[in-house]
Amino acid sequence: MGTTLPRPSRDDDWWKRALCTSDEECAELFYSEASGSAARAKRICFSCPVRGACLEHAQEIGEFSGIWGGLTGHERRARSRHGRP
């Protein structure tokens, strides 16, 4: 059984254009704890056309698991603590 990325609940369709939703194998990469998976996921994020919207969404809902908007949960928590958007 594969991993499915959580989708925004509001009427926002940015996630339909996200590169990470292209296939099930890609989605699993964003929540994997395997060595090197964060770096591979971030490389996908950095070329994604909706990276900013993804990061904003993760921060709005307080999502600290997985890679969102090119940042790990740890990196997003650090940004929140320092008051960065």
Folded structure, characterized:
There is one protein chain. The chain is mostly helical and 85 residues long. It has one domain (15-81). Helices cover 42% and strands 0% of the residues. The protein contains 4 helices and no strands. It has helices at 24-29, 37-46, 51-61, 73-81. The longest helix has 11 residues, at 51-61. It starts with 23 loop residues before the first helix and ends with a helix. The mean pLDDT is 81.
Defining key terms:
85 residues; mainly alpha; 0% strand
Topology:
Blueprint: H1 24-29, H2 37-46, H3 51-61, H4 73-81
What is the H/E string?
Answer: HHHH
Number of domains: 1
Q: Find the count of extended strands (DSSP E, 2+ residues).
A: 0
Structural class label? mainly alpha
Compute the number of helices: 4
**Percent helix among the residues?**
40-55%
Morphology call: globular
Distance between the termini: 34 Å
Unreliable runs: none
CA radius of gyration is 12 Å
Mean pLDDT: 81
Strand proportion, as a percent range, falls in under 5%
**Main sheet: strands, sense, barrel:** none
How would you summarize this macromolecular structure in one to three sentences?
By secondary structure, the chain is an all-alpha fold.
